[in-house]
Structure to design on (147 residues):
């Protein structure tokens, strides 16, 4: 059995939109670049042609990656958790999502990460302890809700 890719509805929509854009717009743009580069003559020393072919390869790789991701998608509810780090006193709102959708810079954490596992099933008012590579962190769950 193949692994599933857990995605929120928002994440699914994002990847479907990206795939559509790549197939409809980017393929057409790169085909035009390749056509224009071919019209310049000798392809053996044509930097524009080489660059366009490289870009075409990257686009096709991303299309294949997205098709595989979407083929095995499992829709999950995103869990929002407002939690207070008991060591720093800082309160942060996290969104616990599937690993393919995680983006730590935007506080979207994987349900497979130590913090994500600890927070996703926590209840309001509960304190959870998370073992991380940097040591233990205690969070007090201030609020939690699902998408």
């Amino acid at each position: 059995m193949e692994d599933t890719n857990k995605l929120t509805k928002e994440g699914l929509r994002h990847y479907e939109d990206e795939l559509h854009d790549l197939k409809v717009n980017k393929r057409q743009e790169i085909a035009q670049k390749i056509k224009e580069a071919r019209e310049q003559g000798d392809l053996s020393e044509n930097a524009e042609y080489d660059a366009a072919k490289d870009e075409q390869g990257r686009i096709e790789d991303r299309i294949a990656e997205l098709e595989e991701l979407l083929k095995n998608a499992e829709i999950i509810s995103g869990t929002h958790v407002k939690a207070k780090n008991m060591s720093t006193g800082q309160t942060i709102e996290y969104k616990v999502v599937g690993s393919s959708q995680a983006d730590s810079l935007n506080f979207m954490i994987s349900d497979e990460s130590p913090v994500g596992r600890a927070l996703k099933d926590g209840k309001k008012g509960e304190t959870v302890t998370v073992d991380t590579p940097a040591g233990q962190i205690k969070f007090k769950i201030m609020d939690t809700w699902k998408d």
In short: The CA atoms of residues 131 and 140 lie 15 Å apart. The mean pLDDT is 93. The helical segments are 9-38, 47-71, 114-120. The radius of gyration is 22 Å.
